[in-house]
Each structure stands twice: as structure tokens, then as C-alpha cells.
User: Which sequence fits this backbone?
């Protein structure tokens, strides 16, 4: 193999690729622009929807009003701009205003109105008649969980009643000379000790590890088909077979080209996501209580790079082996797409579990690299398992390259036999 | 300088057997032997499926022979495939160009990849662009060129590294009359430069016009080999088409007692009037 020939072939592949719209869009433009646009659209959309929902006035029918002693609760409900009470006379507690709820069987009418979306919830105040707290009562709320407006109405009622209950219990306790410690039973106090950096790293570790791996795979996807099945389809395969470069040089150049685009796609994606987090997400979160700082440890950068390179080498080899049998670009896509989706299983396994990288998980292909990157972004560097992960991945790469080398010895493969199917080749030649 | 008396291409008992699920073993090339010399256009004449392309693919090392041997410029096709490919240029209807490269980039790529001296590449590319009249569209992408323009770029890329041996496998298939004539003209020019040219075709008139010697291939076997005059003498026929048909009929056993002699001569029977299956 002559590296000067590999270099000439490699540059030819890259030049051709950069003039192919599909490759440029998938390998460069999507990784760069997808996240800023996606995150901006997501946050803007969420804010917009939230604004719309908060702007809704909840229409609440009071089927049975509370006892007069709890008139303050009704006042609280009335005082809310976002709640409109129906079926209640202006007089207040204990009276009805003759609206639908005032009919002979008011409950049924309100229920129908709720089902038809004319109101958002019904509320009934029911005395509990306990001895210790004779004025205690229960609140029955009916709402439609399938409707956002209705869910919001239920939440608002619960919120108002909860506040009222706290105040009422406090005043009752005071009249019975009970202090706060006496009246608060098995209190749970929750305190979040994570810093804004910790939360940022958690989010980044999950998002970056997932998207980096997916984007490396996506970056390899089209080029691996274009440089193999695409060559056959365009009838340039035979042309290439007649140049004086060795088969090994040709395949090496193609392999390095596909891996390069995979790495570029992955790294562009990471950079774009980091920039998006800083430039899009942080300003949007600035107005909320969710203080998040997006930083990653410097040491994570080489780990991510190593992971991206190892995965690009793995994906390139696997995808090229499959696509090399296809006779057309379309066949190549059909052959690789199921494998591409299968890749998501180990990615999710590595991304979503709480376990850190270990000897066992370092032997799960793809999932191990996902986990390694996730841990590194979170500031966890288990160097021995990182080494095992990379070694294991590179061993798989070596095995695939050996398989590719064996495949190249089959002339039928070079001439496009086996019905364009790797599986048929495997059946006839490898497992026969 | 190549010695004109020494063969540039030497083929000896070359064989290629394919396995086909429905037909079993298929002897695509069955013991073919011939030599080619500098400044010679050697024609391989045969019907579709006769074994022309398989023979030429073996010579260009795309396929490996099942038996026999061959050398190109002294390099064994099985042992030194890269050296063989460096010594030859291969042109066929199935060797397309990279659509996303420009005409100049295409010629430049094939010049470099075939090991032309680096320092001379630019001059060589400029020379080829000029020679084949490509300058007007040298910076145009190949996929935007007309078929005639593509043909010129294709020829330029075939000869880019100035190989002593050139293979033209059915080069005029799919070309219009003008482009086919242009191809014939180019082949003549290359012959005049002393190149060895292997030219396969099933178009008799082309072979008649171009080839110094002709080998008639049928079902993988070389039935006859000689100059057009020798083949005419052997068969008593004037037109190459008749010569070709006579040999095929004998080979198929539909020409009475006639046999093909060791020198390609037809003996022992009258071929004329034999039924064509």
C-alpha cells in the first residue's frame, strides 16, 4: 500500500463529497444549525404555549358552595383573575345563582357541560363533620384530564384550597394554643445541594453523549453508501479498479474518508450544541428560576474526541461492509438503515442508566463509548475503563477490517454478485 | 523505447471459469493464447458473451484468471497487478467518470493515481486538455458535459499516464456516428505513437478498418488469429462478417466436415451455405 496513492484517492473522495448536497447537508449543515434552531424553536414554542395556557381563565362551576364560615375561601377564588366561578350567587357561600347548577339535578348538567368543554372543572364543598374540627370539609373536584385547560383549572383550585387550608390550620392551631412543631407531623424538608454547574453538566452529559454518537453515525451513513454502492451505480467502480493503486490503498482511502466525515459531523455537533446551550438556552433560562451553568471539564474534550474517532472507525467499517454489496444508492440505504436504528439501543443503554463505566459496561459496543463520554462530561474519569472501552472498540474495528479484507478477496464481490446483499454473501461464503 | 519485436502483451492458455447456479461451471475464456506488439492494433472479434470483455478484464487485472498466464510489459497479471495496471489504460462503456469532478480534475486525478511523475503532472494535464480539445469546458463538472465531451475526457483519462498498452473494450457502444468516428481517429493516432492497442468489438467494419491482426473469439475459445488478409485467405471470403460466420459455423458443428486447422485455416469441408441456427 502506498500512502501517496491513499492521499490522492482520499482527497478525490473528499472533493467529490463536498460537492454532493446530501453529504454536505447531513454531515456539516445539520450538525451546525440543527441545535441552535431546534433549541430556540423548542424554548420559544414552550414559552408561547405556556403563555397561552396561563392566559386562559378557568371556568369553574361551584356545585355545592362551602359553609358560610369558609366564605374567605370563596373570596380567594373570586379574587383570582384566572378563575371564573359559575353557578354561584353573588351573595356568596351557601347560595346558588340559578345558573345551570341551580336546576333540579345540577350535578348532571355541569358534568355534561364539562364533557362538552363548556366549563373546565366543577367543585363541591362537602362538610366532614368531625368532632375535633367541626368545620372541616372536603373538596370534590371533577375535571377532564385529557384537556389542558381542565388540568390547569384543577391545579388552580388545588392551589387555592391548599393555601386556604394552611392558613385555616394555622389559625385553628393558634386558637388551641398549638405551636408549629406540634401541628406539623413528619415534615419532609427537601434541599437540593447541586450547583448550577452540576445541573448543567447533567443535562450536557446526557444530551452530548447521545447526540455525539448519533451524529457520528449519521455522518458516516451517506458517505459510506456514496463511496461504495454509489460507485457501482455511477459505473465508476470498474474505472477505479483499473487504476494502478492497490485494492488496499483504494479501500483505505475510502475508509479514512468515511471516518473523517463521521468525526467531523460528531465534533461539529458538539461545538454547535455547546454554542447553542450558551447562546440560546442560557438567555432563555435567565428569566426563570432555573439557574443552569453549562461547563464541561477540559479533560472531557480529549475523551470525547477519542470516543468520536473510535466510533467513526467502527461505524465506517460496519456501514461500508454492508453498503459495498449494494448495487445502487437506494439498496445501500435499505441495507444500512435498520442497522442505523439498531445503534440507538446501546446508545440509550449507555446514556440513560445511572451506572458508571465498569468492566462489564465497557464491553457493550457503542453503549460503552456513550457511557464514557457521558461520564467524562460529568467530570468522572475512570481511566482504566476508558482504556478498556477504547481498546475493545478498536478490536471490533480490527475484526471488521479483517472481514473487509477477506471480502475483497472474493472476485464475485468486486463484480457485484450476491444479489447486492451482504447477508447472501455471508450465507454462501462465510458460513457455507 | 519499446523493442518492436518483443511482445508487450503475451497471453498463454488463459482461462476463466465462473460458477453459475443454473448453468454450473461456465468457461467464459477457454485456453486463449496470443501476443501483441508495439504499434499494433489487435482486435478481438466476437459476439456478445464470446469472452472478449472477460479476457480484457483479466488482462487489466480486474478479474483473476482461473488458469494460464499473461504478461503486460513483462509484468505477470496475477503476480504484479499494480505494475500491470500502471502499464495500461483501460477504456470501456462501463468505465464511467466521476460526475462531481471537473474535466481537468478528472484528468489530473488519473494522471497522479497512475504514478505519473509528480513534477510533470501539470504539464501533462495541460497537454491532454489541449490535445483532446477540452479547454473550453475543462472547469465544467463532468455531469454537466455532453456525451461527446465526456467521451473526450474519458479517452484523456485513459491515456493520462502515457501507458504503452491501451485496452478499448467495445468503445463505440452507445456512441453516435460522429463520436464513433472520433474514437476510431484517436485509436489510429495512438497506434501511430507506438502504443499497443487491444480493441474489442462486435462491429465488423470497425475491426476491418482499425486492426492489424484479428482474433476471433467464440464461446471463450480463440477460433482464428491473423491479419485480415490471412483470415480471408483461410476462408476464401472477402468480407470479415463472412469470415467470422464461417468460423462460428465450424465451431458450432453446423458446417459439414469442415474443421479449423492449427493455423486458423478452414479445412475439409465447404462452409458456404451451411444453415445458421
Assistant:
Amino acid at each position: 500500500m502506498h500512502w501517496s496513492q491513499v492521499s490522492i484517492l482520499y482527497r478525490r473522495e473528499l472533493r467529490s463529497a463536498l460537492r454532493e448536497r446530501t453529504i454536505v447537508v447531513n454531515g456539516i449543515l445539520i450538525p451546525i444549525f440543527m441545535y441552535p434552531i431546534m433549541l430556540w424553536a423548542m424554548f420559544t414554542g414552550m414559552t408561547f404555549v405556556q403563555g397561552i395556557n396561563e392566559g386562559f381563565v378557568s371556568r369553574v362551576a361551584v356545585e355545592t358552595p362551602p359553609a358560610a364560615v369558609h366564605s374567605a375561601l370563596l373570596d380567594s377564588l373570586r379574587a383570582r383573575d384566572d378563575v371564573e366561578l359559575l353557578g354561584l350567587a353573588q351573595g356568596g357561600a351557601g347560595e346558588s345563582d340559578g345558573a345551570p347548577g341551580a336546576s333540579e339535578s345540577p350535578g348532571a348538567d355541569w358534568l355534561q357541560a364539562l364533557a362538552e368543554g363548556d366549563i373546565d372543572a366543577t367543585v363541591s364543598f362537602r362538610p366532614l363533620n368531625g368532632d375535633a374540627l367541626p368545620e372541616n370539609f372536603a373538596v370534590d373536584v371533577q375535571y377532564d384530564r385529557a384537556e389542558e385547560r381542565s388540568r390547569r383549572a384543577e391545579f388552580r383550585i388545588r392551589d387555592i384550597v391548599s393555601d386556604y387550608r394552611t392558613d385555616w390550620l394555622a389559625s385553628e392551631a393558634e386558637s388551641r394554643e398549638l405551636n408549629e412543631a406540634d401541628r406539623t407531623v413528619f415534615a419532609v424538608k427537601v434541599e437540593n445541594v447541586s450547583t448550577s454547574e452540576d445541573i448543567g453538566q447533567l443535562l450536557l452529559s446526557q444530551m452530548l453523549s447521545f447526540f455525539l454518537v448519533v451524529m457520528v453515525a449519521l455522518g458516516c451513513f451517506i458517505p459510506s453508501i456514496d463511496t461504495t454502492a454509489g460507485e457501482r451505480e455511477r459505473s465508476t467502480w470498474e474505472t477505479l479498479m483499473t487504476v494502478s493503486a492497490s485494492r488496499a490503498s483504494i479501500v483505505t482511502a475510502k475508509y479514512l474518508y468515511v471516518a473523517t466525515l463521521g468525526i467531523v459531523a460528531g465534533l461539529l455537533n458538539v461545538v454547535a450544541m455547546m454554542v447553542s446551550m450558551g447562546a440560546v438556552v442560557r438567555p432563555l433560562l435567565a428569566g426563570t428560576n432555573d439557574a443552569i451553568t453549562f461547563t464541561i471539564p477540559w479533560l472531557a474534550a480529549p475523551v470525547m474526541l477519542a470516543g468520536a474517532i473510535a466510533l467513526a472507525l467502527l461505524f465506517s467499517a460496519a456501514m461500508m461492509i454492508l453498503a459495498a454489496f449494494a448495487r445502487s444508492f437506494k439498496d445501500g440505504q435499505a441495507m444500512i438503515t435498520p442497522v442505523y436504528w439498531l445503534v440507538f439501543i446501546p446508545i440509550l443503554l449507555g446514556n440513560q442508566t445511572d451506572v458508571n463505566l465498569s468492566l462489564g459496561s465497557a464491553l457493550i459496543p457503542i453503549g460503552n463509548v456513550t457511557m464514557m463520554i457521558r461520564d467524562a462530561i460529568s467530570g468522572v474519569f475512570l481511566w482504566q475503563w476508558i482504556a478498556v472501552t477504547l481498546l475493545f472498540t478498536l478490536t471490533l474495528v480490527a475484526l471488521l477490517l479483517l472481514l473487509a479484507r477477506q471480502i475483497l478477496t472474493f472476485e464475485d464481490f468486486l463484480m457485484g454478485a450476491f444479489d447486492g446483499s451482504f447477508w447472501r454473501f455471508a450465507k454462501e461464503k462465510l458460513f457455507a | 523505447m519499446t523493442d518492436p519485436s518483443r511482445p508487450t502483451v503475451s497471453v498463454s492458455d488463459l482461462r476463466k471459469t465462473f460458477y453459475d447456479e443454473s448453468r454450473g461451471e461456465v468457461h467464459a475464456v477457454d485456453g486463449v493464447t496470443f501476443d501483441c506488439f508495439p504499434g499494433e492494433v489487435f482486435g478481438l472479434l466476437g459476439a456478445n458473451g464470446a469472452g472478449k470483455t472477460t479476457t480484457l478484464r483479466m488482462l487489466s487485472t480486474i478479474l483473476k484468471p482461473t488458469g494460464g498466464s499473461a504478461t503486460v510489459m513483462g509484468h505477470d497479471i496475477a503476480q504484479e497487478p499494480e505494475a500491470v495496471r500502471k502499464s495500461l489504460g483501460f477504456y470501456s462503456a462501463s468505465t464511467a467518470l466521476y460526475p462531481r469532478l471537473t474535466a481537468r480534475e478528472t484528468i489530473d486525478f488519473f494522471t497522479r493515481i497512475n504514478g505519473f511523475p509528480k513534477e510533470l503532472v501539470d504539464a501533462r494535464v495541460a497537454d491532454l486538455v489541449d490535445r483532446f480539445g477540452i479547454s473550453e469546458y475543462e472547469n465544467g463538472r463532468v455531469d454537466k458535459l455532453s456525451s461527446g465531451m465526456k467521451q473526450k475526457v474519458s479517452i484523456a483519462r485513459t491515456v493520462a499516464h502515457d501507458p504503452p498498452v491501451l485496452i478499448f473494450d467495445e468503445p463505440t457502444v452507445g456512441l453516435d456516428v460522429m463520436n464513433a468516428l472520433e474514437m476510431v481517429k484517436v485509436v489510429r493516432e495512438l497506434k501511430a505513437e507506438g502504443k499497443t492497442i487491444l480493441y474489442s468489438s462486435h462491429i465488423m467494419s470497425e475491426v476491418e478498418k482499425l486492426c492489424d491482426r484479428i482474433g476471433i473469439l467464440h464461446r471463450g475459445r480463440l477460433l482464428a488469429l491473423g491479419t485480415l488478409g490471412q483470415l480471408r485467405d483461410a476462408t476464401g471470403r472477402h468480407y470479415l462478417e463472412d469470415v467470422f460466420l464461417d468460423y462460428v459455423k465450424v465451431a458450432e458443428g453446423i458446417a459439414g466436415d469442415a474443421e479449423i486447422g492449427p493455423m486458423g485455416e478452414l479445412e475439409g469441408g465447404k462452409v458456404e451455405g451451411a444453415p445458421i441456427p
